[in-house]
Amino acid sequence: MDEYLAKIRSGDLKLYALEKSMPADDAVSLRRRYIEEETGTDLSAVGTYSIPIDRVVTRNIENMIGCVQIPLGVAGPLAVKGEYADGKYWLPLATTEGALVASINRGCGAITKAGGAEVRILRDGMTRAPVFAARSVSHAAEVARWAEDNLLLLKVAAEETTNHGELIGLTTYTAGTSVFIRFEFDTKDAMGMNMATIASEAAAHLIEEETGAKLIAVSGNMCCDKKPSAINIIEGRGKTVSAGVFLSDELVASVFKTNSATLAEVNTRKNLTGSARAASLGFNAQAANVIAAMFIACGQDPAHVVEGSNTITTVDMAEGGVYVSVTLPSLQVGTVGGGTSIATQNANLTMLGVAGGAENPGDNAKAFAEIVAAGVLAGELSLLGALGAQHLGKAHRELGRGEK
């Protein structure tokens, strides 16, 4: 190993090339040792991990030096009544935020006592939007119209790049001489960002050839990926999914120590009026908390929490109680690809019964989306209840802080 270290120091061996010269575990260990020497830091804590990394270092990360471990908890059981997920589930939640799992757990209990959350997927399509340069505004209009009129030709070009993805539609936008073509794909059980990118590139080259427009970038930010945006709230991206549950007045009082009217008022004044006053793109209490914890636990891209935070929470007064719902316009999840094959993350997907590709392609990803949406509903209920009962500070004092 000293010989390899000498070569790294001299520049004859690059850190990123170590896996070509030795087994993956040895490469990670040597790289970590070099960084320890360079920074004067003891990194032994990140050198302990249980996941097999041969595939990880080729598919999931570069210059690996170890693993950062995040505590994993469970909340549930949570009764879900979806079209793809139907049963009781224990939610795997990876977080360092004290009180979060306890909060979600309380919401799960209330939903299950109420008979379960009904969940429906309203739309399913991953987007990618190349941007083209036209010669003039009239040429830009011609390019947009050509794309709209030739969906079938573009579909053939795109689908030649994938065995599973399908181009299901497109929408065009222009800004002066810039033309954006927002392609939408059915990516089955994959989250599908890579699939959509490769397929969109093939379709974009056909547009170039046929219209004379110049492809500037395969992503022109009209997609809109990993950034807050109104377009993803309005048009959707990934799964658009809603979950709801009726809670009786008695259940609200016994579980949340408040009443239905207060629950509704907190939601209106906080999640709706407060968010509108702040010009927030999320009209919810803590949707990102649940989405982030489940994404990290289940091998999803955590940057897509941005789109998931677009959630809208509503509380409607009903006879004898309230109907509480969440709508996630842009939830991006998959059960194959990305981090879903890492052993620990795959175990959590297996616990939910959604790991890998489904017999009917796409069903596992849809089931997972329904479970996540029901988990978000549980989190919203619990936090609204804590705020209504004035218990939030007490919960964080007891569960979220190390000092007394």
TrEMBL record:
InterPro entries associated with the record: HMG_CoA_Rdtase, HMG_CoA_Rdtase_cat_sf, HMG_CoA_Rdtase_CS, HMG_CoA_Rdtase_eu_arc, HMG_CoA_Rdtase_NAD(P)-bd_sf, HMG_CoA_Rdtase_sub-bd_dom_sf
Keywords from the named record: NADP, Oxidoreductase
Family to which the UniProt record says this protein belongs: Belongs to the HMG-CoA reductase family.
MF terms in GO: hydroxymethylglutaryl-CoA reductase (NADPH) activity
Matches recorded under Pfam families: HMG-CoA_red
Domain of life: Archaea
Keyword Oxidoreductase (UniProt): yes
EC number: 1.1.1.34
Example GO BP: coenzyme A metabolic process
Lineage: Archaea, Methanobacteriati, Methanobacteriota, Stenosarchaea group, Methanomicrobia
Pathway: Metabolic intermediate biosynthesis; (R)-mevalonate biosynthesis; (R)-mevalonate from acetyl-CoA: step 3/3
Protein's name in the database: 3-hydroxy-3-methylglutaryl coenzyme A reductase
